[in-house]
Amino acid sequence: MTSTFDLIWVVVGLPLAGFLFHAFVGKRVGKKVVGAVGTAVVLGAFALSAYLLLELLKLPAEEQQIISKLWRWIEAGAFKVAFEALIDPLSLLMALIVTGVGGLIHLYSTGYMADDEDYPRFFTYMNLFIVFMLTLVLSNNLLMMFVGWEGVGLCSYLLIGFWYKDKVNTDSANKAFIVNRIGDWGFTLAVILAFWTFGTLNFAGQENMFQRAMEMHQQKMLSAGIITAIALLLFVGATGKSAQFPLYIWLPDAMAGPTPVSALIHAATMVTAGVVMVTRCHVFFELAPAAMLVVAVIGVFTAIFAATIALAQTDIKRVLAYSTVSQLGYMFLGCGVGAFASGMFHVTTHAFFKALLFLGSGSVILALHHEQDMRRMGGLAKYLPITYWTMLAGWLAISGIPPLAGFFSKDEILAATFGTHALPVSMGQILWAVGLLTALLTAFYMTRLMGLTFWGEPRWAAAHAHHGKDDVHGHHGEPKESPPSMTVPLMILAVLSVVGGFIGGFAPLHIPNRFEAFLEPSAGLKVLGKQALGHLPVSVEWMLVWASVAAAVLGIWFGWVRYRRGLPENERELTGVRKVLYNQYYYDWLMVKGVGLWLGGRIANWMWQFVDVRLVDGLVNGIAGFTGWVGSSLRRVQTGYVRNYAFTILIGAIVLLVWLLIRGASAGLAR
Amino acid sequence: MEAIPISWFLVLSAFMFAMGVTGVVIRRNPIVIFMCIELMLNAANLAFLAFARQQVQLGAQAAGQVYTILVMAVAAAEVAIGLGIIVAIYRLRDTINVDEMNLLKF
Amino acid sequence: MFGQILFGIMALVIVVTSIGVVAVRNPVRSALNLVANFFALAVLYLLLYAQFVAAVQVIVYAGAIMVLFLFTIMLLNLGAPAELAERFEWKRPITWGLALLFVIVLAGGVFARLGEAQPVPDNIGTVQMVGKYLFTDWVYPFELTSVLLLIAIVGAIVMAKRRL
User: Which residues of B touch C147 (CB under 8 A)?
Assistant: First the structure.
């Protein structure tokens, strides 16, 4: 029975067709065709997703969960998993973000990568990424989601290491993939446990995990240990993919890839996969309060941890990378306190302004001929006007200045944290305070970024003169604004960053939260009920709002004071506290060199010595040796003496005879 | 005359057979070994004829005797060849001690 | 009565000569024991109403085969009693014991369950009767036996060649 919603497979199919096109004929058609096809398929998918959303909203809320089955996939006894899409508010929201922001980034890439000779390969990988990301968000079961999960990890690897001739890039790609794998281990264990406990992996439909979980909980059959384990293991997977502590270390290094990649994968979409997954499985987390506490604490810790590190970075993309890690912390904080819809709201707004910031930085980088060190920028405001004004919008949005988008989403999360009853220990206020401090830091380091890049005196002229690395064009002189293919997406994203927050409503003014209502079927609290989110009196809500705004303004003010003239003297070199922050408190060094190389090396060596050489080789050689020994022992029977043979035959005959007679006798044949 | 119980014939046959086997195992002279084999064959013949007397039909009784004739024919052929082999071995090795014919040793 | 006495004597002869074949050192004496054994057997065959077979026994076994044996023994000059130094082998007592066991077990089995002899039909054991069955029911084995004898002849000639 086909319905309109089966068109969802066309949504996935369009980028897939793009991928195949680029893979097979990309090199033969010109760059223009490749760029056009690559962008068109993604934007086409966006249009289709928007249409499907409109269709979905026509249905009443309880029915906004449609399943469209493509293929049977696995049916092994009790283990049945199908290739099914779940069309509900959450998945369509994510589909729109992925294809919409993704489409804009594809358009941008046609300009950014225009001089690159591997242009077709780039679009091949980008389209493939969209396919996998859509699989991830549209899936109806954990296993299919895992397929998408792994797929985006693969594309991330391919795209980070896009300029593979440079070892730094391939090392970064390896690091991303390997660290992700650690998270995937947790995810896999969770899948196994979930199947073992619930007998199904589906999110929706007749037989689904969440229904089973709630039933078992009501009948007191669900052990707290198991559900907490499942939730925590899923979170481990999210930690890897969404770069939370302790598995965030791959994200800063992933900036080695081209800037559009950073914008798409490491800001707007792939890294949010963890949040999407947690929101999808919110029932599990609601049933395991301990897990929610862990999520919230790690979220807020990561947020402030990354924010402090961002203060000391000199590479413009790294600042944004740590900023992403920090903002992701906010999203997990929202989920941890039960405000899943708010977490997703921040995903949406963050997609807008972070993509904007990354693309803007790309514009800067390109204008300065691939210069990424902020200490060598400055004063670009008058040379790159469009970039400057759009980034201004992004800056204000992320800092949380009303009425831009970032303010609404961040404020919602902080308010929910303050008043939540969902956590076992009433740590809401403490977490709120940490989150507020992080907001201040966010505003500060973003202002620093703006200051070092756009304000003050230009510092790039001196650097430019000795610039030898990528100076293909060979022209000195002034940085030029980017072409429309790059600036148009910037403008669109800027507009979204400004107005995108309004659908979140505003509680103190009693403007209803349309976004939350929209996500209710997917993210509404089924187990804990709405009362878990607490209900703050309006006066407290206003107080929280003013606190957020104050933090933002303070942060900006501190930053303005220090950086409005560009680079301060004592920041030219990395010393002291700044150095510690710059090196991530040496955590990355510890993980990679210490745990990874030293400990891992020891373990690998032992495994080789003991398991491989002694056990496996020993076993194999042992069997061969044993066979030989048996053979050489048994051959002594062949003496060559006929009489011995005859003797042996005699004995055998007698034994046989006796046995036959006894059997015959016992069978009752005696006379 | 009174019949003699068949069992006695069979016991006798068994005894002859046992003696034959013993001889094959014990003796080292291949010709004597051969004679013991003949002893065994005759034991079998005796058993055939004894059982033939137990049959009801004439055809079956005759069958026992026919077997015996055939066995004798085979025995004769076997003796001829076997003694030929022994002579050939004697010519080659100048001994016929069975214990020394162990070329099939490992 | 007569038959039983005859049986008893012949049985005794058979037992003694069988042991003799095995236990006697001199191969010529072994062969002579065997000849006596065959004659006694022939008489026993007569008691079993197998006249033709008895006659063939004497002619073929005692007459031809044993003569062949004696010829070979004398050809190879094995008459000398210096037959192969006999050292004690553990096989001997064990084999005698096993043989005894063998006989006892078979005897026990035999006595436990056998029936009596059937009435004697006419014409049993005569040349005509044997010949009749030999050429009708058993003609295949008969012909094959003749082929076998041919092979034996060929083989014997090959064996006897001066150079193989």
Answer: none
